[in-house]
Amino acid sequence: MSGAAFHLPEEVWCQIFLFLSDEEKGKVRSSCKNFKRLIDHPSMWRNSALVLNKIGSYNTQYWATMRRRKTSRVVVHKAGTKEWVRIASSLPWLTAITIDQVLDVKALGTLQRFKNLKRLAIRSSQCPPRLSEVLAPLRQLTHLCLCELHGAPTVKLIGAVSQLTGLTSLFYHEGDTPLTRWICHGMFACLPNLKELSLKMGAVYGTLPDDYFHLPKTHHDSTNEVAALDTVRNKSLSGREHPDQSDLGLTRLELLNYMDPVLSPVALEPLCSLQALSVWYRDRAVEPNRCNLSVWLRKLPCLTELTVARAYVGFSAGGPAEPLADSGRHWSRGPEGSWTADAGPPAAPH
Predict the structure, then answer these.
(1) End-to-end CA distance of the chain
(2) Residue limits of the F-box domain (predicted)?
(3) Matching CATH topology for 6-46 and 118-341?
């Protein structure tokens, strides 16, 4: 590199470095002290997530570097109590944490030390006992993802989720069957700010009730499966801007492992604010006429984005009928109401 290049303003170098991958930043950082200082500036890492594995091997200098970068997002693999305490003491300002494989639920009590934590994801793990007790105090959360937590106690877990009244985004991918209507209604009533919802549907015999996504104006059910939600739900109903509203206010809905006729043709009708819908089918159906997707689209006036994978052969959005690849396809709807397919496959579901 010419000597003149080193005299470029720091602002220019920072703009250049923003185009580099995390790995490339590391290589540039090791080339000279000045670049090391620039690379470690927090603006370089604002959109990066730090992956923490074998946490016990990280030395004091490593944590000092992460503090200089003001790292705010981490992915944690197999951490015990000692490791979590180290993370909390070194990076107390974390706003987003993803946990792969929970080793000790007691260690997760450390999450309460992250006062700025807004996004939490727990995935690919046997659901630890008392996880609900860990989640319930995290009232500051706005985004929660529970993915593939095998053996989770549904009612207790949903009861804890229902106490997180500030949630705007919920990804609940647990179990092999859909949540019952009453559990959903109790949860929906407690989450007045929810805008984005992703559910793993799974197999079910028959069709879920038409009002599955309909927020009841009143709730008088006293069955055992919703008893655990009643106390929390009743407290939160008064917190809604309009307690008698039946529209959930969702703007994004994702259905994983879905298969018709789990939801009825009118099931999505109450979601009049929905702007984006993703449906990831479990299998292709032999009978295209059983697909409810086309009916749903006619009931969603605000919908502008659609993602579908493994759809029925007979479905097509604004084009000839054709089978869809397993990777799926994404459509956008223009002002005139016609659907246009994007060139590449959509992003995989969370």
Answers:
(1) 42
(2) 2-48
(3) no
* Residues paired with residue 196 on neighbouring β-strands, in sequence order: 169, 252
Q: Does domain 6-46 have CATH number 1.20.1280?
A: yes
Based on its alpha-carbon atoms, the radius of gyration of the chain, rounded to whole angstroms, reads 23
Of 197, 349, 325, 350, nearest in space to 341 by CA: 325
With a CB cutoff of 8 Å and minimum separation 6, the contacts of 233 are 162, 186, 189, 190, 219
> Percent of the chain scored above 70 by pLDDT?
81
Residue with the larger pLDDT of the pair 114 and 334: 114
Residue 178: is the preceding peptide bond cis (ω within 30°)? Answer: no
Cα-based distances in Å from 205 to 143, 147, 177: 31, 23, 10
| Global pTM value | 0.86
pLDDT at 348: 67
Domain boundaries, the chain: 6-46, 118-341
CATH of domain 118-341: 3.80.10
pLDDT > 80? residue 34: yes
